[in-house]
Automatic annotation (TrEMBL):
Residue ranges constituting the Cytochrome c domain according to the UniProt record: 45-131, 194-278
Lineage: Bacteria, Pseudomonadati, Pseudomonadota, Alphaproteobacteria, Hyphomicrobiales
Biased composition (Basic and acidic residues): 1-15
Residue stretches in coiled coil: none
Domain of life where this protein originates: Bacteria
Localization (cell): Periplasm
Region spans: Disordered: 1-25
Organism the protein comes from: Bradyrhizobium vignae
InterPro entries for the chain: Cyt_c-like_dom (IPR009056), Cyt_c-like_dom_sf (IPR036909), Cytochrome_c4-like (IPR024167), Cytochrome_c_Oxidase_Subunit (IPR050597)
The name this protein goes by in its record: Cytochrome C-binding protein
Amino acid sequence: MYGGRARDGQPRHVPDSTASYTVPQTRDRFLAPDWHPGDHPAMPAVVASGRQPDVYACGFCHRASGTGGPENADIAGLPVACFIQQIQDYRSGKRSTALSDRIPQAWMISLAKAANDDEIKAAAEYFAAIKPKKLVDVVETETVPKPTVAGWFFVTKGDEREPIGMRIIETPTDVGRFVNRDARVRFTAYVPPGSVAAGRGLAAKPEIACAACHGERLTGTDVVPGIAGRSPTYIFRQLYEYQHGFRAGPESQPMIEVVKALNEADFLALAAYLGTLER
C-alpha cells in the first residue's frame, strides 16, 4: 500500500525481518523503522528519532541504513567531512534545489537549519561507517512500463508500455516495501538504448575525467563521495543542479566546470553508466 491510504493500524512486515510497524509509524517523521538492525551500527538519536519539532529522524527519509531512494540520496558511506559540508551548504543557501516546493529537498534545508553541530556530527559519523551497497539495476529499453508518480517517485503497474524517449524511469521493485522504509529494497532504472556506452565514453573524456576526483573505480576517496552504483535519478538531478547554480558550495567548482559544456542527454548517459558500476 502507498499514498497514505492504509491507516488501519495493522502491523506491516517485510521479508527477512522479525520487526513490525503500522502504517502510521512508517509515516512518522520522528521514527526510522529499523527492519534490519544487523545491517548497521546502533543508530544515534538524531538518526533514529530526530528531535521535535524541527529535526526529523535522518533515517526516516534516508532509511536506517542510509540507502534513501530516487527522491533523495543514498548517504551510506559518505565521507564525514563531505556530509558536514553539505549540511553547511544547505544552511547557508549555497545548496538548494531547482524546485523550491519539492518536499524532500525542502525538508532537508529546514532540518539543516534546525540541527545542532553535535547532531550533524553524530549523523555524519554514523552513515560514514555503513558500507554502501549497489541497489539499482540499469535496464536499456525502447519502451517502459507506463509510470505514474506516487510520493515523489515513479510506480509502474500493469502491462501497458510506452516509448521511453529521453527519460530515466527509476522505480522500486517492491513498492510496498519501499514505502514501509525497508532499506534493502532494490530499484530498476530504465534508460534509452545506448545510454550506458555513451556515458562510459563521456566519463573517460579528459575534460570530464570522473576518476580524477572520484577515484579510479569511482567509489570515492576519504573526502570525495563515490558516484559508482548510485541512483541514476539522483545523479541526473545533481548534474542539472550544478549546471543551473543550485549547488555552489566551496567544493563545487570542479563539478561546475565539468557540467557547463554538457547537455541533458549527456547527464542521462552519465547517470545510466554510473548506475551500472559496483560500489
